[in-house]
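The methods section describes the discrete structure representation at length, but only in general terms. What matters is that the chain and its backbone geometry are given together, residue for residue. For illustration, here is how one protein appears when written out as sequence plus structure tokens:
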Amino acid sequence: MPTTRFARKPDRSGLAVVPPRSERAIGRSALRKASLRLLPLIGLGYGIAFMDRVNISFAALQMNRDLHFSATVFGLGAGLFFLSYAALEIPSNLLLVRFGARRWLARIMLTWGLISMAMMLVRTPAEFYAGRLALGAAEAGFFPGVIFYLMQWFPAGERSRAVSRFYISFPLSTVVMGAIAGWLLHLNGTLHLAGWQWLLLAEGLPAVAMSAVFLLGSPDGPARAEWLTEPEREWIAGRLANEPRRGAHSEHELGRAFRDPRVWLLGGFNFFLLIAAYGYTFSAPQLVRQVTRLGATGTGMVIAGIGILGTLSMLLNGWHSDKTGDRRWHLVLPILLIAAGYLAAGSSTRPEMVLPALAVIFCGLTAVLAPFWTYPPEFLRGRSAAAGIAAINTIGILGGFVGPYVMGVLTDWTGGFQRGLLVLAAPVLLCALLMEIMHRYSQRRLIA
């Protein structure tokens, strides 16, 4: 049992030791405070980020018609966001370590909010491409920065639940987008603005406001959190310092982190997963409208309903993964469900087949997120963790370029989304293969 300054009675060596019940109470209090103070704020920020990243999927219901964008033009523009994001991911995360999470994450929110609103001014494919590249550059580093930030607060056994609690904003953001997109699109013509322009303007403003909230409301780490007691700060520091590391690199071994095969295996998993994820995300509103013949409001409600199911899936899988201590099967089983969903959705145009399949796809995509991001802290720490997590996300985020572009090209080529959905089953199955390789490699490292 670790020694601390806030003990109540000495052991035989004269060192003060906290009684187990007291230490557990301090730990529960520290984690409860961190969860209540940080996770809603981070979750709100990430939800806004995701909305500003993919709100063009709803804007496309009008924008593609108004600006005469083909599915290929739209898919390429949607994907270009991820190229600039990937290029600046690692530098951004290293700057976060230098300047502190609070300042850097607030800076990211401010710049992406302003650029997101400016997207309402695009008129040509070239302007659309430039705006998406600028938005990706502005948001670069936000997600891996948040993961790195949470590593400073939550021990390994709590991380999957912590990630799932803030990551819940991802499926919830689809609920919000689905609920309000139809209303915003119906503002078409108000103050001489198109409905899709109102959508981009309204959904960019919250990021600007959140930058100020985050700057004022989040400490750089537990040591600077005034709302923690000294025993609570020491409990968090002690738990993090004494965590077992599976072949962990020291915090200064930046180069070795990039040479670790696990970084590249997780990066590859993330790459293939995000091909499938963003191929679905940017096409979902148009696909639902094509299959159901619903208007903008009805389409939004369908997407919102799928988002609610995805929220429940994420919470349940993250909770059960922490409870059992298993990560492998809590990733592989949802992956297999995603592949089955793509095959089912791509094999039919009937709403009673396609809509449940889309729900299965989205529930699987949300279920894997929290268990996946518990892997890097098991073998990375300090600056290695900042760079390693950014590298995994950078490799993966390139899939965000491939997925929408492939879907756009196949949609223009075939006149429908079904061929693209069938194709997206392949990268999902590769995810399962890479996770099996990752598991076997980790087992060998433990034995060694």
Residues 20-54 form the longest helix (35 residues). The CA atoms of residues 113 and 207 lie 5 Å apart. The chain has one domain: 23-242+252-447. The two ends are 26 Å apart (CA to CA).
